[in-house]
Amino acid sequence: MITENFKKISQSSNKALVDPTKKIPLRWNVGFTETKNQEPKDLFKATVPGAVQLDYATAHNWPPFYEADNFKQYDWMEDVFWIYKTSFKKPVLKAKDRLYFYAEGIDYQFEIWLNNHLIFKQEGMFTPVFTDLTEHLEKDNEISIIVYPAPKLKGVDVGRKQASQSVKPAVSYGWDWHPRLIPSGIWGHCHLEVKHYSILEDVYIDYELTDNFDSAILTVEVVGQNLDCCSYTWCMYNEDGFLISEKEDKFGDSITTELKNPQLWWPLDQGNPYLYTSIFMLKDIEGNVIDVKNQQIGLRKVELVMNSGTWELERRPMSRSYPPITIKINGREIFCKGTNWVNPEIFPGVITSKRYQKLIDRAIEANFNMLRAWGGSIIGKESFYEYCNEKGILVWTEFPLSCNNYVGTPRYLKVLEQESTSIIKRIRKHPSHVLWSGGNELFNDWSRMTDQSLALRLLNKQCYDLDQKNPFIPTAPMAGMAHGNYVFKDNETKEEVYQWISNTKATAYTEFGMPGPASVDILKKIIPENELFPPRRNTSWETHHAFGAWLGDTWLQLDLLNEYFGEAKTLEELVANGQWLQCEGYKAIYEEARRQKPYCSMAINWCFNEPWPTAANNSIISYPNIPKPSFYAVANSCRTVMASAKISKFGWVEGEIFEAELWVLNDFYKEIPDGQIQAILEIGSTYIELLTWNYSDIKVNQNLKGPTARVLLPKSNENKLTFHLKVVDKEEMNSSYTLKYDQKLERKKDDNILA
Q: Average pLDDT, whole number, for the chain?
């Protein structure tokens, strides 16, 4: 999108908008040592950006890490030093030129040496490196980067707690859907840059919108070096590439401009995600452009407000109500239908902009308007946020704290402050980003942090100081919000999803899951043929999270599948049954959460994608980007306007009274005209018309409850029934629910006797 806008701008202004920076690529080799001061015995080609594990595996012709349990071969790699090396000739530099080394991200603790001079060292993977090499240059030069072993808190068992004193995503230390495989190395773009000694380090466009949105005052905050003798030109362009504002001056007074009647940025289901383009040029004393910073600007107002009914909660003695968790954009309350976004790859260095785009396109296809960028994973790269800006996807960004007690030791807080500063300053520029969270599941028994924990107090202060426009919450969930359940039938209460979601009243469902197996094709790629069927513990099924991942026999839930359907005779039958439950379970939760609006303001499942192929999981997208059937079921349940049925259970028996409560779910910002819904029950070739509901006009962003359809279930040899809601002349609102159907027990016995 940014590239396309620059093409439009160049065409409309007859200017070639070229960054004068000269970038020099580097070729890297890498090897490992047991101690920091050794030289590697063997160096092999490194791919940058990438990961040392992948480089080693490629050099030694290892099989794919995602097959069977091959990833376990990588265990030793987390405990050694990795040494990157590259060489280059001294480039020709003009009188005022400098040579800089730039690295977008190096994971995790490292030193950078140039010609045996230590020029930089850092702990932290989210703060870029930009350092001047000029003073230590020779005719022939060598850069070495020493990457330390993966950070681990000593004295704790292997697992995520080892990450609790580092600002490194905890997921790579092992999760119920992620193997223990800890990335290391240069994960971002890395090169040399020849630049003028006067440089722009950062340009931030802040703005204030009037209450009625008829004006926006934009202010530029510039950070740079040697700017005293320089001037600037700041241009603003509209979405069509036409110049709408231009400022030229020397540095001194504040740099501001006003946009009258600005176009606002809206989420994709609420309007147009309008983007302006800002180009800020630094000029030398002769007027030559010596540095450029460009970005896209979306003007919008974000608020986090109290949910309807939460002020009125009665408590004795009186205390505060549940905290706010309703997102308000440009004065309009938004029901957030979305998903938990996890790292799309185990190794962040291989994530490309195209990889992001394809997955975000899937999220749009699913009718989602929000992605919760989960705190156990890596912070999204620029291309992630840029594409969300363009497409109108709201992003809730969590800092990399998850399911641990991050004790506020001086060393940890120092690194957290450094890393959070870099994260905030980068992400605050993106209109898609609308909410900060300190981390995932920190206020509970397994983490035991509170709002008095120093790490969370620091993050709150950081967000206040650096980004007051976007709200901050310390963690999710908080009081009133819900995480879970994650299975079709609760292991303790034995309630199905239909019962436990109806009996829950939450201000936001920010995690809930429904497990389902991967497709047969995927299973055949990751599980050896001799282990493929039937699924068993202590095989690759367990390695890929089908057994022993969480409580009970998650995530495959083989016992539950046998309970509902009997023992499957083929892998295909097993997969079909598991995916059936996942489809109907997810539909039940999303639609019930929407029915609880406006008290409830979010329905965000766990989870969207996965970083490697799992045998079974709560995801609706199998790795790398293969939709499960549940993806399409969820997409139907997240349509802006739809007919919906509230159903009490999954399994039905002939002779029972089947009933379903009818609703129209509506998140649209305009009034919905009246219509007619027909309720029809399908059992085999039999169709039973239950009722017709003539519904009235539906107010903006409000649901409408209708009648309850009932019928005595007839005798049938079918094993499923489907309940249809057909909206006359509005097929896009139609819905269907496919449920289990059984004969009476007595009849089954009679049939067996006759057989």
A: 95
Q: Give mean pLDDT, residues 612-622.
A: 98
Q: What is the pLDDT of residue 313?
A: 72
SS3 280: strand
- Residue 252 and residue 348 in one domain: no
Helix (H), strand (E) at residue 292: strand 289-297
pLDDT recorded at residue 755: 34
Listed residue (399, 426, 438) closest to 128, CA to CA:
426
Confidence band of 746 (pLDDT split at 50, 70, 90): low
What is the pLDDT averaged over residues 22-49? 96
SS3 state at 326: strand
Residues 630 and 646 in one domain: no
Interior CA angle at 206 toward 203 and 210, to 5°?
160
Of 38, 40, 65, nearest in space to 51 by CA? 65
Q: What are the b/e assignments for 476-490, b being 16+ CB within 10 Å?
A: bbbebbbbebbbbbb
Express each pLDDT in 327-361 by its tens digit.
Answer: 999 999 999 999 999 999 999 999 999 999 999 99
| 315 in a structural domain | no
Domain that holds residue 657: 641-754
Cα angle value 58/352/609 (rounded, 5°) = 95
Ordered DSSP codes for 185-197: EE-S-EEEEEEES
How do residues 124-138 score in pLDDT, each as one tens digit? 999 999 999 999 999
Half-sphere exposure of 624 (CA within 13 A, CB side): 12
Asked if residue 16 belongs to a domain, the reply is no
Q: Is 35 left (phi over 0), alpha (psi -120 to 50) or beta?
A: beta
Within-domain flag for 153? yes
Could you give the number of structural domains in the chain? 4
Peptide bond into 607 cis (omega under 30): yes
Three-state DSSP at 650 gives coil
Structure tokens at 97: 């030129």
C-alpha of 388 from chain center: 11
Percent share of the chain, pLDDT over 90: 93
pLDDT in tens, 291-331: 999 999 999 999 999 999 998 876 666 677 899 999 999 99
Torsion-angle region of 507 (φ positive above 0: left; ψ -120 to 50: alpha; else: beta)? alpha
Q: Which of 626, 576, 583, 625 is nearest to 605 (CA)?
A: 583
Q: Is the CB of residue 373 less than 8 Å from the CB of residue 408?
A: no
Contact in structure between 486 and 618 (CB atoms under 8 Å): yes
pLDDT value of position 317: 67
Beta bridge partners of 120: 112
Separation of alpha carbons 621 and 627, rounded Å: 4
